[in-house]
Amino acid sequence: MTRIVLLNKPFGVLSQFTDDRQELRGGEDKRRTLADYVDVPGVFPAGRLDRDSEGLLVLTDDGKLQHKISHPDQKLSKCYWVQVEGEPQDSALQPLRDGVALKDGTTAPAKVRRIGAPIGLWPRQPPVRFRQQVPDSWLEITITEGRNRQVRRMTAAIGYPTLRLVRYRVGSWTIDGLATGEMREL
Q: What is the pTM of this model?
């Protein structure tokens, strides 16, 4: 029987069970890993979320399912709530919808819309930096790829750097009902 675990990964947590660099740092300043949140043996993350990103991480013991979730050829959609610096208009968002040129090639078209601050979103620790003179806004971005730091690079490419990134959905799974740091086995 396939095991599937949904984790609402907090900010600052590595998307792996061990910290490979801890030995290099002499054990100082232990970074949090999935082992601090997931107590289900034999499951591994299907895809990754950067240490400075939050939200849904799917873990499974099924290699085929891991491939389906994480491989870009599978075109599984992933939806992100993205707080950006500034207030982009539709014309600024159009390159994301068309596919934006990055150093590693042009992205596939994304679905993008402006949203209000997500209801029920937990406060981030540490808080996002606040600058009184620069407004911020929220976007909902859905992609089917999964390049390294892709959403952050996409928003930066159009001149609206990402301040906070929360993955809300992977395929049909969401973080609904999961507090930050909470896991649920399906």
A: 0.93
